[in-house]
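In the laboratory, one determines a bound structure by crystallizing the protein with its ligand and collecting diffraction data. In a computational setting the workflow is compressed into a single prediction: the sequence and the ligand go in, and a structural description comes out. We illustrate the idea with 4'-deoxy-4'-aminopyridoxal-5'-phosphate.
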Amino acid sequence: DSVFNHVVRAPEDPILGVTVAYNKDPSPVKLNLGVGAYRTEEGKPLVLNVVKKAEQQLVNDRSRVKEYLPIVGLAEFNKLSAKLIFGADSPAVLENRVATVQCLSGTGSLRIGAEFLARHYHQKVIYIPQPTWGNHPKVFSLSGLSVKTYRYYDPATRGLDFRGLLEDLGSAPSGAIVLLHACAHNPTGVDPSLQQWEQIRKLMRSKRLMPFFDSAYQGFASGSLDEDAQSVRLFVADGSECVVAQSYAKNMGLYGERVGALSIVCKSADIASRVESQLKIVIRPMYSNPPIHGASIVACILRDRQLYHEWTVELKAMADRIIRMRHQLYSALQERGTPGDWSHIIKQIGMFTFTGLNSKQVALMTAEFHIYMTSDGRISMAGLSSATVPHLADAMHAAIT
Ligand code: PMP
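The predicted complex, in structure-token form:
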């Protein structure tokens, strides 16, 4: 008789479970549009050429050892990551007002940031957009924050519910933390315009709301690293505090390396150094120190002018391919005369299209067309190719009509 007999089977993760179901399907036409990982036109995972070059450099360097990194990770990686998101000439970086620690990709960065805020920030409530990435509420509540939502997406316009957003943030308690997607909002693909970001910033600063940016797609949305960082830089430019979680999963294709960074922008170098000392207290009992390989790859690329340039070219090519898929899917639906306005497919930004398909329609597409996606109708454009667009368009047409 087992002491674990009472353990009931937990459901699969709603996003990662899509891949589990896909893997079990023997159909040759099956298509996985669930998880957000980039695929080539041939449907294959992509290791960036600059990543291969950086790894070669690391292998050739005989002086490299496999010692533990410090608790906060690789110092050079941290500095370069802060410059990447805030800008090389950012006063916050130049004045050493930013505490940056290497974390386990975007998820780990969000978790460390949330754990720190739960211990050291006076307001324990965090507002997350409705809808948002499914892991957000779990990460934040398990960190000890209390999770509330603010209106974000309007299903009627398939666009931003800007008025709802301003109303909800306007009635949040003073000091509340607000989770913002830096760009390429997941799952909706809907981002505020720069003018709207400025209005959000003004409102948030007037109410002393704490911005917590999730930057999982820098460079992946527009193809430009600077453009995709504009929202964050707008907030940092006013001199007040701000928290940012960065991931290199998408923009360097380093998914499984688990490399990311948490930055807390402070008002002085002294405060930043005290904040960093407390981040170490959070990290040490969780995993002691982060892994060395991915951060070394990133540092190699960010420090070298030539590799950095090659990275921006490869990044732009990934972003452009995703944008091309949007246009091809839109045209394919037009050709089929699929009822409804599908212009949101080309208007939305980043890896995902929030199609507007409901869970019944998604179930039909899976059952009859072997197309896998999350039940909220989100499809990963990065998993599509010119060859598979017609199959998806047929399935969407069948589900709608
Ligand atoms: N935030 C958002 C909005 C995401 O979409 C993702 C990845 N799906 C992450 C954070 C974290 O990803 P990772 O931990 O792999 O960097």
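DSSP finds 15 helices and 13 strands in the chain. Keep in mind that any predicted model is a hypothesis to be tested, not a measurement.
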